[in-house]
Amino acid sequence: MIKAIFWDLGGTLCRTDAGGKLLGGLRLARALKPFCGSLFTGLYKMYLVMRAYQEVREAPGAREPELKDLVPRVFPGQDIDPLLVAKTVCEEALKYTTPLPGAAEAVAAVAAAGLPMALVTDGFYGRDYVERALEKLGIKEQFRAVVISCEVGTGKPQPALFLAACREMGVNPGEALFIGDKEDRDIAGAARVGMKTLLVGKAPRKTRPDFFLPDLRQLAEKLPTFLKGGPGAPG
After folding, report:
1. Rounded mean pLDDT of 11-21?
2. Which CA distances in Å does 80 have to 30, 77, 84?
3. Which of 73, 79, 123, 184 could join 150 via S-S bond, C-beta 3.0 to 4.6 A?
4. Is 134 exposed, middle or buried (0-12, 13-18, 19+ CB in 10 A)?
5. What pLDDT, on the 0 to 100 scale, is given for residue 146?
6. Cα 49 to Cα 71: distance, rounded to the nearest angstrom
């Protein structure tokens, strides 16, 4: 029996890429321009940030980083405040954080069913961004807990993040349904610890989620089936 619902943030409830990989990269590079002098250099620095993020995440035993932790690596030897850089980039990203179709209604449907909810997300921008994104989406008060990778110390798809969320909510993994859009990070990670899974977006190709929806607009209708924990992949 499902006793709690866990949500991913970016790509599931909202867009967090500032408008797509190309346009988003340009917008975030523009935010870096005051620190590096030109848009071109800003683009290069943003590329270095993302490369450093992946390198740190993949290093054995390394803690999950957030943006402010990576600034000294990208601006070596420069007198630049990492917190100010991170805040400036996050402000730009927040401008373009927008809800995905059916997100607010889906969260409301789960709340109406009386199920507690937690947000479980990789925290590249840090807690302040996540909290403000939820406020902007108008759903912050619906979440009992917000569990972020940079605070736990490891990100998706590692078990520690999902298990930390279960402890926070006081449920066993088998009593939780995880809703996410990324097969390799959300679905594989949640299934690995024994959670039920609902993939939203593109049809599954690499994993076998318990349920699938092309978007969240159908969730209210399908929720009773999902909560029973039975098999199904509605189209």
Report:
1. 78
2. 17, 9, 8
3. 123
4. buried
5. 97
6. 7
Domain boundaries, the chain: 4-15+98-228, 21-95
pLDDT classification of 196: cutoffs 50, 70, 90: very high
Q: Can you give the pTM of this predicted structure?
A: 0.91
Residue 145 has which token pair?
A: 């807990």
Please enumerate in sequence order all residues whose Cβ is within 8 A of that of 154, keeping only pairs 6 or more positions apart, or say none: 63, 64, 160, 161
Tell me which DSSP letter residue 149 carries. Answer: H
pLDDT at position 234, please? Answer: 43
Mean pLDDT for 13-29 is: 77
The number of helices, as runs of H, and strands, as runs of E, in the chain is 10, 8
Cis peptide bond N-terminal to 82, omega within 30: no
Mean pLDDT along residues 190-199: 97
Q: What is the 3-state secondary structure (H, E, C) of 90-135?
A: HHHHHHCCEECCCHHHHHHHHHHCCCCEEEEECCCCCHHHHHHHHH
Q: How buried is residue 224: exposed, middle or buried, by Cβ count under 10 Å (0-12/13-18/19+)? A: exposed
Question: Which class is 4-15+98-228 in CATH?
Answer: alpha beta
Report how far apart, in Å, the C-alpha atoms of 91 and of each of 128, 142, 150 are: 10, 23, 19
At 97, the amino acid letter reads T
pLDDT higher at 35 or 25: 35
